[in-house]
From TrEMBL:
Residues 297-362 form the GH3 middle domain. PANTHER family: GH3 DOMAIN-CONTAINING PROTEIN. InterPro entries: GH3, GH3_C, GH3_M. GO terms for molecular function: acid-amino acid ligase activity. One of its GO terms (cellular component) is cytoplasm. It comes from Jejuia pallidilutea. The lineage of its organism: Bacteria, Pseudomonadati, Bacteroidota, Flavobacteriia, Flavobacteriales. Residues 388-493 form the GH3 C-terminal domain. This is Putative auxin-regulated protein.
Amino acid sequence: MAIIGNIIKGVINLKGAITTEPNPIEAQKQVFKNLLDTAKDTQFGKHYNFKNILNSNQPQQTFASTIPYHNYKKMKDEWWHKVINGETNITWPGTPDYFALSSGTTGKESKRIPVTNAMIEAIRQTGIDQVFALKNFDLPADFFEKEIMMLGSSTNLNEKNNHLEGEISGISASNIPSWFRGYYKPGEKIAKIDDWDERVKHIAKNAKQWDIGALSGIPSWMELMLEEVIAYHNVKNIHDIWPNLQVYTSGGVAFGPYKKSFNALLAKPITVIDTYLASEGFLAFQQRPETNAMKLVTNNGIYFEFVPFKPEYINQDGSITNDAPCLTLEEVKPDEDYVLIISTVSGAWRYLIGDTIAFTNVEKAEIIITGRTKFFLNTVGSQLSVNKLDDAVQHLEDKLDIKIPEYTLCAKRFDDDFYHSWYLGSETKNTNTEQIAEYLDNYLSKANKNYKIARSKALKGVKVKLVSPNIFHEWSGANKKKGGQVKMERVMGEDKFKEWETFVAQH
């Protein structure tokens, strides 16, 4: 009998029974007030007169009209360069002990995003809230006695100018509570190995020693790790090694494109729970099994605003125009795309995180990630967001019974005409790329009216090339770094696409 598991499950269920859900709108008003009150005497708070904003009749509206939108470059050039250089009380009281390094999906140069102790605590508390939400998933008591494989970036952080630097997953893992360390795998020693391939080899070598009940990490790198473990032990699937694996906490990107290839590594279905942990904070997690949407963390260190995702508000580089309107949680509507804007306990203010979301349930503040502002494919008016592209790829998987865990595309000019040029990562033996292109084209024409209109005008058609999924992983390794928070760019501009095609030709 799972005695400890029953105790843990009982505590989780009891807390759920006696804890009431905060009203998201009221929670956001309180977070907003706490943020400005805490930062009012910083350089940023004095410059924008947070005290006056707090004392105004409509502080949230005054805040929005007073402070401009910031992307990373603007925040760094105007404010965070001082924080990076060790100056104190710039955008948040004191100086941060950590900086999250993030190249995201855009380039080689790492961003340095402050991670304060207040943010570390917010991430930890949200993680605890997520654990307590497991009561909704009706997991057996013995699950709570199993170990958790957290596949993030290295916890071997770099010391620089009196602070530590690393990816957010590595920073978070290096700050796990002491009571959790007995459950945490691959353990501190292996987690500190900086080289991703070497770390995975050690995981594979030690895998049979662990009783893994849950996985956590970005789908693409999780798949590669599972494949390595399966190959090392010469078994059919991961359940031959970890028979009690029941839960996968996915994050970083939409799980949909990986569902088919991921499930092929399993012997039985497992529960997939989506999370939204970015370098800037822990933004949302799936709270209940009836939906794949995630609940925004409205009561813990992050204030959210929402810009309607319309072409007239989006600049060519993915930033938003200064006059773009902004809504509070109280004003949003379901099933409409919004650019996510955050202000946080790490001193990010009206910060463009780069993601677009849509509300599936406004009352519960539940969202899905619909894409990236930089990955919005609108070169010839097709207005395709990443979720539409993901849907098209999943349609191909179902129609052709193949696995396509990775893809990228570009609106590329061939002679005088534009085509959507797709690269699909698949090991399929089906080499009829013209037929595959036709399926893609037909699906998108039916699913998106703007795409259909574009196809009757400037967009002449679709071209498809099939390459090994490993090419995508090697591209990420060559341009950024394997593992961790690294994600493949789904849409590229023409210059980047030239680099990609040269890379593919060399491999």
